[in-house]
Structures are given as structure tokens and as C-alpha cells.
Design a protein that fits this description.
About 80% of the residues lie in helices and about 0% in strands. By secondary structure, the chain is mainly alpha-helical. The longest helix is centred in the C-terminal third of the chain and has 88 residues, at about 50-135.
């Protein structure tokens, strides 16, 4: 029992210390405060801190992911449009074939009509010719 009470006292002390430290103006964690780093070194290059480099890497990674997603969306859109174009071309080809088939059917029907008409004309002319020749010979 004494041991549990002593542990609670330690926890209470730690909590009081943490609460009091939170009221202090000085940071307790993080990078140590240093002077302002120089913007340029002797060679004219800018010096970046580790946190700035991490932020740059994170922002570049986010931009790269967005660019990749946008490129993937554009590629999918282009593939869909290409598929639609192919389908439209196939439909036009089918319509053309359908028109040709209907045209050939109409041509066939017309030639059948013309054949019957020619057959009728030939038959009548032969009948009349036979009657004329028979009337002359008689």
C-alpha cells in the first residue's frame, strides 16, 4: 500500500512539474535556439536547415503526387476518348455496310422487276410476231 501511494506521489510531482514548465516562455523541446543562420555562404549558395529541407521534401512530394494523379487521370481520359473514337468509327462502318446491303437489295429487287417486265415484253412480242407470221402465211 505504501509503495502505490509513493508511486502516486511521484506521478503527482511529475504532473505539477510539467504543468509549471508549460507556463514558462522558453521552449522545452525542439531545436536549440541559435542565432539567425546566414542566408548565403561564401560561395553564394543558400544554406538550409534540416527542418527547411524536410518541409521542402514534403511539399515537393505532395506536388509530385498531385502531378502523378493528374497525369493518370488524363491518361485514363485519353484512353476512354480513344475507345469512344474507335467505337464511333465502327458504328459508321456498320452503317455504311448496312446502307450498301440495302442498296444491293434494292438493286436486286429492281433487276427482278426489270427481268419480269422484259420477259413479259418478249413474250408479248413473240406472241404478236407469231400471230402476224401466221396470218401472213395463211
Amino acid at each position: 500500500m505504501q509503495r502505490g501511494k509513493r508511486l502516486l506521489n511521484n506521478c503527482g510531482r511529475i504532473m505539477v512539474i510539467v504543468i509549471l514548465m508549460s507556463f514558462l516562455k522558453t521552449p522545452v523541446y525542439g531545436e536549440p535556439l541559435t542565432g539567425q543562420p546566414p542566408i548565403l555562404n561564401e560561395g553564394g549558395m543558400r544554406l538550409y536547415s534540416d527542418s527547411e529541407i524536410d518541409l521542402l521534401i514534403d511539399s515537393i512530394s505532395e506536388i509530385a503526387l498531385e502531378a502523378i494523379e493528374q497525369a493518370a487521370a488524363e491518361a485514363a481520359r485519353a484512353a476512354a476518348l480513344a475507345a469512344l473514337d474507335r467505337e464511333a468509327a465502327l458504328l459508321q462502318e456498320v452503317e455504311r455496310w448496312k446502307g450498301e446491303a440495302e442498296g444491293s437489295q434494292q438493286t436486286l429487287r429492281q433487276s427482278q422487276r426489270d427481268g419480269r417486265r422484259n420477259l413479259l415484253i418478249t413474250g408479248l412480242s413473240c406472241l404478236l410476231g407469231g400471230l402476224v407470221v401466221g396470218a401472213i402465211i395463211r
